[in-house]
Design goal:
With 459 residues, the protein is α/β, with parallel strands linked by helices. Helix content is 44%, strand content 13%. It contains 18 helices and 14 strands. Strand 5, helix 6 and strand 6 form a beta-alpha-beta unit. Helix 5 packs parallel to helix 6. Bound molecules: nicotinamide-adenine-dinucleotide (NAD) and uridine-5'-diphosphate-glucuronic acid (UGA).
Length: 459
């Protein structure tokens, strides 16, 4: 089937960059991204590309090149569905906050709404592509909704999970390690493979059955997160034994069977997906009665929570067992560098813990807006929004955030933090001046020479 028009439901961190790259690489394909969030669509259409709702290196340039030519952002969802031969579902699939599976299972209500919308609107045959990360066997539910419309429209369902990481999304999309397509209709699979084939070598386009594809996505995230928890577990042991976690990571990473990536000890992983996808995997395993499997993966999350908690506990203990009334500067709020995404960022939980101990916090992040920082804290419901606003302020300059601070906590590994004038910062801070480097980005010897008391992870 030759595809001329596609649409993507969900203009988020996945839908936006993925479709922008597909449009760039397929100039003859008309790509429409739709969303119910009018504000988000307006931001995608903003003539000033620095105001796009998502910050990703290289993305603004691609949007500028394709928008209005073969890439369109719209809130007219029904129209886009009706016109397209292929429809990607790229909506959010957060952890359920209510009912059965609360706190564990993926909430599929947005995906189901999309399927129902497609079923309602479609008058011609469609290929429906699951781009969202979904529990294994979700395609069955989508199929069931789409095949009970009473019309004779045919729907082929494909699973095409996305593996991009934020901060490197454009790079990851332009040269993916692999593209995964799961399905049972060879014709539908090849239609999608052709779109990717305009820039991805065929041997990197994997075709599997739909269940393997769905499960591979959860498994990939679980394996990646497991590596972070593994090195973080070792970081705690390093702190008790005078081993250095960076040296250990290098030594084990040079074993080609282990590999060097994803061995950076940190304050704990964040992001919208690792925790949610592992919780979902644990939930699925338990629902099949596979308790040992569930317990095994759950430990990855337990260790990650422990890592965040022990960072703030250590900070408090080092500041003479109290941070009450003390100013703590936080550098970074995003869950990793080069993104404005803060979902599940370790900074949120560390800040909340320090605020419980009556600290005063000043945050500086190069890309995260103050309103986002406040709403992240308010979402935890620990204290009133007014209290949060009083106790935690966001600054436009790092030097302002650091002025007169008792300690600085580095929460995100933004490159610019490394090149700050740390001598000037030392002079501005209260003495003794403490650095708690949750990302191991500064040099201990250099910081000690300036006069700082410097603590990092796993050293
Ligand atoms: P997101 O929250 O940034 O975007 C989802 C968008 O879908 C939102 O703008 C929302 O308004 C829209 N939406 C929800 N219901 C809708 C409906 N019924 N009709 C129209 N629009 C609707 O989420 P995201 O980060 O892009 O993630 C999307 C999916 O991709 C998730 O399943 C996630 O697990 C997966 N994923 C995310 C990443 C990542 O890096 N963020 C990477 C790989 C996979
Ligand atoms: C992750 C996966 O890497 C993507 O392949 C996947 O598509 C995506 O989840 C998803 O499904 O959402 P992302 O969360 O954007 O991507 O970013 P990562 O680079 O994986 O980082 C996740 C977290 O782990 C960050 O907080 C990061 O700082 C932390 N991390 C990562 C470490 O602490 N140490 C490391 O060595 C690597």
């Amino acid at each position: 089937m030759k595809i001329n028009k596609i649409c993507c439901i969900g203009a988020g961190y996945v839908g936006g960059p993925t479709m922008a790259v597909i449009a760039k690489k397929n100039p003859n394909l008309r790509v429409t991204i739709v969303d119910i969030n009018e504000e988000r669509i307006a931001a995608w259409n903003d003539s000033d590309v620095s105001k796009l709702p998502i910050y990703e290196p290289g993305l603004a340039e691609i949007v500028e090149e394709t928008r209005g030519k073969n890439l369109f952002f719209s809130t007219e969802i029904d129209k886009a569905i009706d016109e397209s031969e292929m429809i990607f579902i790229s909506v959010n699939t957060p952890t359920k906050t209510y009912g059965k599976g609360k706190g564990m299972a993926a909430d599929l209500k947005y995906v189901e709404l999309c399927a129902r919308n497609i079923a309602k609107v479609a008058t011609t045959n469609k290929i429906v592509v699951e781009k969202s990360t979904l529990p294994v066997r979700t395609a069955q539910a989508i199929k069931s909704i789409l095949s009970n419309t009473g019309s004779d429209v045919n729907f082929d369902i494909l699973s095409n999970p996305e593996f991009l990481a934020e901060g490197t999304a454009v790079e990851d999309l332009l040269s993916p390690d692999r593209v995964l397509i799961g399905g049972d209709s060879e014709e539908a699979i090849e239609s999608l493979a052709n779109i990717y084939g305009s820039w991805v070598p065929q041997d990197r386009i994997l075709r599997t059955n739909v269940w393997s594809s769905e499960l591979s996505k959860l498994t990939a995230n679980a394996f990646l997160a497991q590596r972070v928890s593994s090195i973080n577990a070792i970081s705690e042991l390093c702190e008790h034994t005078e081993a250095n976690v960076d040296e250990v990571a290098k030594a084990i990473g040079m074993d080609s069977r282990i590999g060097s990536k994803f061995l950076q000890a940190s304050i704990g992983f964040g992001g919208s997906c690792f925790q949610k996808d592992i919780l979902n995997l644990v939930y699925i395993a338990r629902s099949y009665g596979l308790n040992e499997v569930a317990d095994y993966w759950e430990q990855v999350i337990i260790l990650n929570d422990h890592q965040k908690r022990r960072f703030s506990d250590h900070l408090i203990k080092t500041l003479y067992n109290t941070v009450s009334g003390k100013k703590i500067a936080m550098l970074g709020w995003a869950f990793k560098k080069d993104t404005n995404d803060t979902r599940e960022s370790a900074a949120i939980y560390v800040a909340d813990h320090l605020l419980n101990e009556q600290a005063e916090i000043a945050v500086y992040d190069p890309k995260v807006l103050e309103s986002k920082i406040q709403s992240d804290l308010n979402y935890l419901n620990t204290r009133s929004p007014e209290e949060n606003k009083q106790l935690l302020v966001s600054k436009d300059s790092p030097y302002e955030a650091l002025d007169d601070a008792h300690a600085v906590a580095i929460m995100t590994e933004w490159d610019e933090f490394k090149s700050y004038d740390w001598k000037k910062i030392y002079k501005q801070m209260k003495k003794p001046a403490f650095i708690f480097d949750g990302r191991n980005i500064l040099d201990k010897a250099e910081m000690n020479k300036i006069g700082f008391e410097y603590y990092s992870i796993g050293k």
